[in-house]
Amino acid sequence: xxxxxxxxxxxxxxxxxxxxxxxxxxxxxxxxxxxxxxxxxxxxxxxxxxxxxxxxxxxxxxxxxxxxxxxxxxxxxxxxxxxxxxxxxxxxxxxxxxxxxxxxxxxxxxxxxxxxxxxxxxxxxxxxxxxxxxxxxxxxxxxxxxxxxxxxxxxxxxxxxxxxxxxxxxxxxxxxxxxxxxxxxxxxxxxxxxxxxxxxxxxxxxxxxxxxxxxxxxxxxxxxxxxxxxx
Amino acid sequence: xxxxxxxxxxxxxxxxxxxxxxxxxxxxxxxxxxxxxxxxxxxxxxxxxxxxxxxxxxxxxxxxxxxxxxxxxxxxxxxxxxxxxxxxxxxxxxxxxxxxxxxxxxxxxxxxxxxxxx
Lengths: 231, 118
Description:
By secondary structure, chain A is mainly α. Chain A is built from twelve helices and no strands. Chain A is 80% helix and 0% strand. Chain B is mainly alpha-helical. The relative contact order of chain B is 0.06. At the A-B interface, α2, α3, α4, α5 and α6 of A face α1, α2, α3 and α4 of B.
């Protein structure tokens, strides 16, 4: 676990800290309190879901639509967690509750790091390493988010604006980097184009519609493409 | 269930965070643990679900760039789009190093901001 904690001083941790510092700026600008911002950082620990919920809170969305929007934004965590489990599990020895705790640290950045680095470790050491890594990174980011939230007011406009842009650009790059098949990339392009359209014409549930319409369109297009050219 | 009756209460956002945030997010992580390796990651249903989620997050990206909150709102929209596009092109050009893409977008934004003198 200590090795995982030490490994937390890393590039993914820096990216996450910078992204959450940027998010703290966004949260403040949106009118969220410090407690709300920190509760989201600690409890959710997945920036896309946090940003979706921030939008929901600021637009006064109901509990159920907000939960659906957030759940849709975090569906990706399930296959990621599934892919990670066989790697950290010691058959017949690892308890399910240990895996449930570890799963809270599954988020794009930490997951990519884990999939790349865990195979180098002996099997028994992987779960403690992952928990040590995830726990340390998220605690550090939690504290930095709080500090950033409190100091954002004193930042010059240029820096504050630059930090707000950090979140979308970080997503843009890492979402593309996480895309494994053409359907993922098509969905991303569809979402980028449809997002503003639904925001203007169907405000409130715009993200849900962007996801369902853009995602289904991209999926259908790539299925059609596969049938047309690979059969 | 509408939040209208409680929307003003100080604790309402925390209920939202616990139910619509924590529960709605961690449920997938827990399901991931329980499902183990049963569902295939390249199964058709999962591909569609991931498409929907990806498009949704992409929608968040373009919303943040086109309709930002706060001080970034004062910058011209073309500057924000060009900065993000420039960062993405650099990201693709340097074998998908996220750090460099983000840095490039920031340099572009700050440079443009200073040149425009706002």
